């Protein structure tokens, strides 16, 4: 057992999930102090084989979402292994799974069966499209990016739809699962009763599309691709400078006045075409060339320093390496060394004034803690 204490210290989580959404949720909870037992098939989590890239032969995809866990390989087709899996579920405070809906019923690991033995259990299920008519649909992030409408919003206005650069809805659904678990734990603290928490990728996607789904359900407007432009703000996009694009934002009238002052265009804020956000957005095709003409007179890095100093939101378009470097420059300490081999990993993004966030156990090898966990499960209560 680990020694670092956190907000979730003392909680035992049985992690029956694999790929991304579930493992991301359980890693977040493990970072906050929970003990997570990662139950894998004898073949291991699929992401162990998702290479390249890798670090010393291990998939960096797997490494990025399985910190602070202990692994045991259990074959549910083996009666002895299945009994141990059921015993783990009976002892756990939280169980998280992302099998196809109903897939664990034949193993006696479904919510109804497990909760009859462990009524205080928080049982979290993650699916692609819910448990009704979409229960049989496979839950891949790319499918949900397409089905939810995100791809219709991503890409150039006159180009094809694109997927986001990450499995964005897997990550968001994992966060929603973690939020649901924490809320259910608070409910249990008040009532003593566990419950079933369900999240699915499509519902998380529609929630995460925020202003776009709101535009449709509240305003009857179907959003469309606009490249890097924002439907309700301008400027809020990359603008060309003398050497490269720079993100420039004026989220309110005060920021727009500051931007115009630095660009030596002090008359624009009083122009009725640009005097409000709505006016600037409606007249973006007239305003954009006026701003670009000034920005093209100097390199992006010079504008970045000047505009930032003046309080105008702006920034470079970085590659991932520069993004990590920026966080380091800002004192955010984004990289932590984990385990005896000092595996570099991205730090948990949450900080507390009192509780501790831990980055102790490196992602486990398959069945690394199998003997220890099996012996513990064989013990009587």
From TrEMBL:
Keywords: Transferase. It holds the Pfam family CoA_transf_3. It comes from the Bacteria. Coiled coil: none annotated. This is Crotonobetainyl-CoA:carnitine CoA-transferase CaiB-like acyl-CoA transferase.
């Amino acid at each position: 057992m680990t020694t670092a204490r956190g907000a979730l210290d003392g909680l035992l989580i049985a992690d029956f999930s694999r790929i991304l959404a579930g493992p991301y949720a359980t890693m977040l909870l493990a970072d906050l102090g929970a003990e997570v037992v990662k139950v894998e098939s004898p073949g291991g989590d699929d992401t162990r084989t998702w290479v390249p890239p890798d670090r010393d032969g291990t998939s960096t995809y797997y490494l990025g979402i399985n910190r602070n866990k202990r692994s045991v390989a259990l074959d549910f087709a083996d009666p002895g292994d299945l009994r141990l899996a059921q015993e783990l579920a009976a002892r756990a405070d939280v169980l998280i799974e992302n099998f196809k809906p109903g897939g664990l019923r034949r193993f006696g690991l479904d919510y109804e069966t497990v909760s009859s033995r462990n009524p205080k259990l928080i049982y979290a299920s993650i699916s692609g499209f819910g448990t009704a008519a979409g229960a049989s649909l496979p839950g891949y992030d790319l499918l949900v990016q397409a089905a939810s409408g995100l791809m219709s919003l991503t890409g150039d206005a006159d180009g094809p739809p694109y997927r986001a650069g990450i499995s964005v809805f897997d990550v968001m659904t994992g966060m929603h699962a973690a939020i649901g678990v924490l809320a259910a734990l608070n409910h249990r603290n008040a009532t003593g009763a566990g419950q079933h928490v369900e999240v699915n990728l499509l519902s998380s996607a529609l929630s995460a599309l925020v202003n776009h789904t709101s535009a449709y359900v509240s305003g009857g407007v179907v959003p469309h691709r606009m490249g890097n432009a924002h439907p309700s703000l301008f400027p809020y996009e990359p603008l060309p400078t003398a050497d490269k694009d720079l993100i420039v934002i004026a989220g309110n009238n005060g920021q727009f006045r500051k931007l115009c002052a630095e660009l030596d265009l002090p008359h624009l804020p009083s122009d009725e075409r640009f005097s409000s956000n709505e006016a600037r957005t409606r007249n973006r095709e007239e305003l954009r060339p006026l701003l670009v003409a000034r920005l093209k007179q100097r390199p992006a890095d010079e504008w970045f320093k000047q505009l930032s100093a003046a309080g105008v939101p702006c920034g470079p378009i970085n590659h991932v390496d520069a993004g990590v470097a920026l966080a380091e420059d800002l004192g955010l300490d984004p990289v932590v060394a984990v385990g005896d081999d000092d595996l570099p990993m991205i730090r948990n993004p949450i900080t507390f004034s009192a509780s501790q966030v831990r980055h102790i156990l490196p992602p486990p090898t398959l069945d690394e803690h199998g003997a220890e966990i099996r012996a513990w499960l064989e013990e009587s209560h």
